[in-house]
């Protein structure tokens, strides 16, 4: 009986050791696929940049911002009256990138349709340093768009699509284009990933 117990205990411990040792550090951003363009308050956002799908990702950790991945606010108490304050971040390989979309001071968003003249956009790339890799916009006269496809005050849902042409802030004249953008949020969404 003692020999059988030792053998089973050893097998059990070996199984635990192997299964814990085989866990890989899975990076969900590596093979990211854009979320579908929904209007149901699914708390999703994504776009493509340089042919790669960009989706926010930030692990929930003790002491970390619980809204470190998605902080999407519409109206009070976290954004201006009838305004938006969207902040998205992606952390991978010890680097971060982020996208911020906000209502300009004197503008509001209360209906569906094009709102490109009502917003400002900031994007910081993974290799940003000072003004290098920091982009602002949207650029006037380019193919930028920001369209609200749903705003539902009763169910507190805001959805839309976007494409932004942004200018690097270091004076280089470089532009980037964020394409195929879509978002679908409950008002005042807050998220990090497990």
Number of extended strands: 12
Structural class: mainly beta
Report the radius of gyration as a whole number of Å.
21 Å
| Helix percentage range | 10-25%
**How far apart lie the N and C ends?**
43 Å
User: Helix-strand pattern, N to C?
Assistant: HEEEEEEEEEEEE
Largest sheet: 12 strands, antiparallel
Any low-confidence stretches, pLDDT <50, length ≥5?
1-25
Mean pLDDT: 86
The general outline is: globular
Strand content: 35-45%
Layout of helices and strands:
Blueprint: H1 2-21, E1 44-49, E2 52-54, E3 70-74, E4 84-92, E5 95-103, E6 113-114, E7 119-129, E8 132-137, E9 145-152, E10 157-168, E11 175-186, E12 189-191
Antiparallel strand pairs: 1-2, 1-11, 3-4, 3-12, 4-5, 5-7, 6-9, 7-8, 8-10, 9-10, 10-11
Give me some keywords for this one.
mainly beta, globular, single chain, twelve-stranded antiparallel beta sheet, about 190 residues, 1 helix, disordered N terminus
Protein model, in words:
The structure is a single chain. With 194 residues, the protein is mainly β. The protein contains one helix and twelve strands; from the N terminus they run αββββββββββββ. Strands 1, 2, 3, 4, 5, 6, 7, 8, 9, 10, 11 and 12 form a twelve-stranded antiparallel sheet that branches. Residues 1-25 have low confidence and may be disordered.
Quick summary:
The protein has 194 residues and is mainly beta.
């Amino acid at each position: 009986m003692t020999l059988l117990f030792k053998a089973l205990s050893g097998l059990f411990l070996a199984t635990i050791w192997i299964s814990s040792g085989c866990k890989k550090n899975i990076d969900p951003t590596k093979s990211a696929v854009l979320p579908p363009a929904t209007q149901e308050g699914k708390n999703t956002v994504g776009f493509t940049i340089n042919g790669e799908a960009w989706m926010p990702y930030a692990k929930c950790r003790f002491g970390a911002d619980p809204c470190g991945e998605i902080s999407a606010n519409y109206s009070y108490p976290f954004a201006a009256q009838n305004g938006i304050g969207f902040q998205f971040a992606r952390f991978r390989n010890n680097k971060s990138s982020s996208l911020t979309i906000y209502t300009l001071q004197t503008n509001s968003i209360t209906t569906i349709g094009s709102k490109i003249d009502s917003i400002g956009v900031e994007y910081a790339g993974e290799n940003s340093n000072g003004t290098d890799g920091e982009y602002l916009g949207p650029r006037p006269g380019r193919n930028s768009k920001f369209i609200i496809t749903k705003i539902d005050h009763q169910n507190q849902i805001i959805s839309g699509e976007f494409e932004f042409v942004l200018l690097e802030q270091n004076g280089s004249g470089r532009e980037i284009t964020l394409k195929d953008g879509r978002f679908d949020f409950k008002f005042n969404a807050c998220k990090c990933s497990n």
